[in-house]
């Protein structure tokens, strides 16, 4: 594996002025810290909840359960084409408005209006209350005062974001910043074939994010997922990323790659050769017609390039792969030691059975890698909670891990200062 030049300061960690001392993981095991994160982070930051392809027509909607904020939202495409979000609550008696068989399960569909299951109050797609059963029995009721409570909602590059604050501190674009917004020059809209996985993980949400912000673990943890000769070569070479970037609370790691179709047979799985899909993704991906530099991708100019992992604060990751597809991760906190992980793969729609099989193989491969990453987390959580050890050394290739926990602490500290100032 080639050795890439370090920044002028000698290491990425020193370059970003993050300190080199061992790190404490109290923010991943403390219930008090988790309760502060609910308010300080998840009720103040812009949160990605989906993409516009999930709302293909007027009246298309989906719900999003947000246990970390103790609420649910419904996202809908209105008659005017606008995407809006509302708290998923009827204004009459507080019943959850949109759900199917089980109230805590997310749902989606198409409708002309939302009708409460309890007393049949109705709401238009813009949230206005349009009908009240036995309206004459109420006292001075004005339906105009009882529309759905709107949630701040905005769309960037086809990604739908919400903000649960009464008034967001920044616009979505300002929150994302230039490193992320440059990605709008990448053709996300061409990749609408979607594969989705969800799992409940018994660890703090930040611990799983840690697993995907460094690749130091990859040659070891994922050794059995690759042919033995490939795993041995990767372990011997180790891992060193050619580029890291930090912009505000957001992070990027870019990696070099391989052209698996040029590797010897002993370094490629037979199923990958058969489907022409593996390490990582379809071998015959389409030309997406974009310029890497314009999209802020592959900043080190690697050839071959592997992937760019954009970590959007707080809990959303976009991974753009050299083989013409992309992947997103979400980490939704439930408790200090529990979160819901979601992984979604996006491809240019297959034109034939061979391309569909290549996509399926990539999706199955991703799931296996994800399971391996998740497999360590409950054990990590358990031992961190023992507090037998409270200081942990990080190497330079774990620079983004250090940064994310620093940002979490900064947001909580800032929130506490605001609360103190208001007293």
What do you see in this structure?
With 423 residues, the chain is of the alpha+beta class. It has two domains: 12-29 and 178-416, Alpha-Beta Complex (Naphthalene 1,2-dioxygenase Alpha Subunit, Chain A, domain 1); 47-167, Rieske [2Fe-2S] iron-sulphur domain (Rieske Iron-sulfur Protein, 3-layer Sandwich), CATH 2.102.10.10. The protein has ten helices and 17 strands. Strands 1-10-9-4-3-2-5 form a seven-stranded antiparallel β-sheet. A seven-stranded antiparallel β-sheet has the order 11-17-16-15-14-13-12, with helices on both faces. Strands 6-7-8 form a three-stranded antiparallel β-sheet, with no helix packed on it. A hairpin with a 3-residue loop joins strand 14 (305-312) and strand 15 (316-321). Helix 2 (31-42) packs across helix 10 (399-422). The longest helix is centred in the last third of the chain and has 24 residues, at 399-422. It is globular, with a radius of gyration of 23 Å.
């Amino acid at each position: 594996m080639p050795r890439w030049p370090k920044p002028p300061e000698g290491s990425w960690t020193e370059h970003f002025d993050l300190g080199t001392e061992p790190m404490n993981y109290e923010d991943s095991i403390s219930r008090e810290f988790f309760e502060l994160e609910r308010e300080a982070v998840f009720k103040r930051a812009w949160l990605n909840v989906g993409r516009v392809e999930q709302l293909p027509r007027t009246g298309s909607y989906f719900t999003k359960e947000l246990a970390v904020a103790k609420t649910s939202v419904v996202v809908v495409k209105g008659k005017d084409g606008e995407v809006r979000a509302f708290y998923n609550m009827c204004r009459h008696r507080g019943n959850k408005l949109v759900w199917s068989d089980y109230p805590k399960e997310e749902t989606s569909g198409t409708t002309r209006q939302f009708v409460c299951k309890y007393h049949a109050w109705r709401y238009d797609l813009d949230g206005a209350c349009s009908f009240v059963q036995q309206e004459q029995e109420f006292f001075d009721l004005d339906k105009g005062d009882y529309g759905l409570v709107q949630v701040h909602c905005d769309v960037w590059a086809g990604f739908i974001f919400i903000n649960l604050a009464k008034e967001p501190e920044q616009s979505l674009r300002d929150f994302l910043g230039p490193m992320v917004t440059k990605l709008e020059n990448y053709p996300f809209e061409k990749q609408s074939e979607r594969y989705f996985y969800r799992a409940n993980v018994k660890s703090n949400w930040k611990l799983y994010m840690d697993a995907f912000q460094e690749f130091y673990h990859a040659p070891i943890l994922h050794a059995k997922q690759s042919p033995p000769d490939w795993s041995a070569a990767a372990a011997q070479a180790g891992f060193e990323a050619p580029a890291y970037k930090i912009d505000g609370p957001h992070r990027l790691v870019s990696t070099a790659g391989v052209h698996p179709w040029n590797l010897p047979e002993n370094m490629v799985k037979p199923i990958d050769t058969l489907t022409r899909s593996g390490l990582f993704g379809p071998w015959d991906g389409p030309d997406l017609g974009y310029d890497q530099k314009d999209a802020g991708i592959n900043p080190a100019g690697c050839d071959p390039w592997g992937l760019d992992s954009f970590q959007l604060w707080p809990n959303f990751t976009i991974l753009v792969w050299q083989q013409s597809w992309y992947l997103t991760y979400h980490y939704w906190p439930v408790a200090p030691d529990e979160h819901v992980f979601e992984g979604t793969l996006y491809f240019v729609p297959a034109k034939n059975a061979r391309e569909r099989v290549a996509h399926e193989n990539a999706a199955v491969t991703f799931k296996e890698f994800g399971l391996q990453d998740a497999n360590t987390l409950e054990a990590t959580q358990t031992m961190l909670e023992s507090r037998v050890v409270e200081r942990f050394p990080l190497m330079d290739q774990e620079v983004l891990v250090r940064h994310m926990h620093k940002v979490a602490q900064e947001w909580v500290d800032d929130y506490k200062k605001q609360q103190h100032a208001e007293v």
